[in-house]
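Feature request, filed as a ticket because there's no other form

It would be nice if the structure record came with a short human-readable summary line next to the tokens. Right now we just get the raw output. Example of a typical job, pasted below so the devs can see what we mean:
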Amino acid sequence: MRKFIFTSLFLSSLVFGLHAQTLATFEDGADDNLYLSDFGTSGDPFWYENALFVEGGLPQIGANPSKTGINTSDKSLFAINVANADWWGNFAVLGMKNPVTITEENRYLHVKVYRSIQPKNFRIGFNDREEAGEVFQGTISGDGKWESIVCDLGAKFMGEELQYIHIIWSTNWSDPREGWDVATYAFDDFVLSNSSLPPDVTLVDGNGLKIGYENQAETDQWVHAFDLLNENNTAEIIDNPFLESTVNSAGKILKFNKSDQASWWQGYRIDFNGIMEVGGQYPQYLHTLVYVPGSVITGDMMGVDIQLCAKDHLGNENNEIFTVWDDEVDEWVDLVMEINKIAYLKELTVRYDVRKDGEDWINSPANTFYLDEIAFNKDPEPRTHIETGIPQIASGDFAKIGISSGAVIVRTAEAAVIKLYNTLGGLVQSVGTNGTAVLPVEKGVYIVKINSVNGGQQIAKVLVK
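Raw output as currently delivered:
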């Protein structure tokens, strides 16, 4: 299991635990326990390929490439890759002058990382650059800024002696293998600590978390970034076309087009703002409302498997596979996952139509799925009715009138004519319906008049924001 952290750049008053040991700041080499190892021949494990670095950009301890944000120190460990640099030989090794045994008091390695561009992941290894020694593999959240990462050394190497820290500057072993420019990468401030939380992380109270796609302010409150994980996946926020649903009549939903080129794990990822504590006085259940169209069920399929994968700031996973059965399609289903394997929540990935061939995960066909109303609370029961975004303004015997962002929504139990007027009495729209009608409008106040074929009438004034 990969152990890593992507931290938000929100400053807080958090500090390391009582036990912290600085291995290197690179400001004064005499005070550092880490040093940049000498490189020998290609048969030596401590070597790099000169051709992968620009002139003057070989791995070295030198000037900080960006004295901004969380790292304004003068020096750092850095290298400058040529364009499209491959991974083999793209190495650096830091040796420990005095090796350290990993215990509970120093199990977390904190490092500051800078990457001018991030075409590929990078790797940090414990005494080894191969997968067996991997304690971090990934990118950071943005280009051209310093961010903190934390590696859990104790998860794999408790009681073992740390002698070397291996770095692969860019793990270029997957397609596309080219298409990017020269890149500057840097590392600084290596610290061992008993705290998994770095100083620049924000702890957030998850009570009240709700992502309903109704407005940008609501989304920004909880979401740092959305990630489609595969360039062939697409997503867009749309008006809810399933307003006849008795479960979810919210105004806005997410439409997710999953590509057949996407690997099974490349679903729709939400990176939350900060890190949320789980359990006790804090929420413990993640709710995710999904809609699977009946057209997804083909052949002898009895249902579609959807995996929810929650991760903490170290990359530890809490996941569960749910089956949406063939008699549950064409309706919203609330998937509820108990968070009981991680103590903090940092991200959620919804993986649609996950499949296996024997023991191997395989790609599934391209299909369209829908997502809405993600919530984090203390309720283990699935939700059965949601009207977020469409507050009921008036109701009669045959119609309900509501509003969403940029639209008036009318639902009728019988055929009717809907007329929409502005406050000056001008007719804005006139439509017939026998179910649900969505009338897109500009922001403002409107008068809605509904006349049913059976003589019923309903009038309401609405404010569209």
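Something like this underneath would help us a lot:
The helical segments are 154-157, 216-222.
Residues 394-464 form a domain with the Immunoglobulin-like fold (CATH 2.60.40.3080).
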